[in-house]
Amino acid sequence: MIDLMILTTVLITSFCLTFFVLPAIIHKAVKFGISGHDMNKPDNPEVAEMGGMAIVIGVFGSLLLVIALHTFFGYTLSQNEIMVAMLTLAIIMLIGTFDDLFDMRKDVKTILPMFAALPIIAIAAAGSTMISFPFIGNIDFGIFYILILIPLGVTVASNLTNMLAGFNGMEAGMGAVMFGAVAIIAIIRGEMEAALIAVAMLGALLAFLRFNWWPARIFMGDIGTLAIGGALAVAVIIGNFEAVGAVLVIPYLVDFVIKAANKFPSKEWWGELGENGKLYPLGGKVRGFCQLVMKMSNGISEKKLVFLFIFFEVLCALLAIFLYGVIA
Fold this sequence. Notes:
About 70% of the residues lie in helices and about 5% in strands. With about 325 residues, it is mainly alpha-helical.
């Protein structure tokens, strides 16, 4: 049964925890030199990094509140699923933290999220191994689902959301739309635990967006970008609507294909700022989805670029809600 009051409480708690802890993180990050340059601004200002820690605090704090309600006040909840979700996210966030601090090799960072899937594999082994598809129905993948699809899903989702990034408000904005859609679908389908994970992420990302919107005061770093994909995978797996994740990451998949065609160039920004304040693909070369938009629009401001990608994600969210909240 879906308890909208509990979901609202989790949303507000996650938002408030993230919102109120971010100023302290910004201050400490700048003080200890944990910062980077905003390459899409004329003066390349120095901006605090690792803001994803605030997202971690918001998500974990709000989910721990739900567990407390379950333990001390008898609120009905599958505590195992929430604990497994938190453990999976904790591993992913640890990977992101280590990469932010020590800059891991890309191949190592790509593979490591597979290990974060182990807690989900354990709980899935005792649950359903079927995936629901619109117009087709349920398909049982058996042991292949547990040993292959789950770790692959967590790894792919984490890496995709980590790759399409680098512009003020893009990661948090697209992520907020994504988890808003997951929450709606979970509520419609009566999947309370998936809804709790989604609204916890939604609240944290909305609060983070306040500090990350143009001009950004803090970047989330890999601890945040990896967590967005990881949390998406966890929520749809626990909610047993895994194919929703595939719809929601369509913009990320387009970006992946373009970057794969360019053999995954090492530079992260691939854009240059014109005197008119618009962004253009570096050297006129398209190395990712963002650079394709820059070229097709003959230059675009960072704000408009981010708004456009959030709009792309809104379209994917509406499609996912239609397919899995209305038809399925």
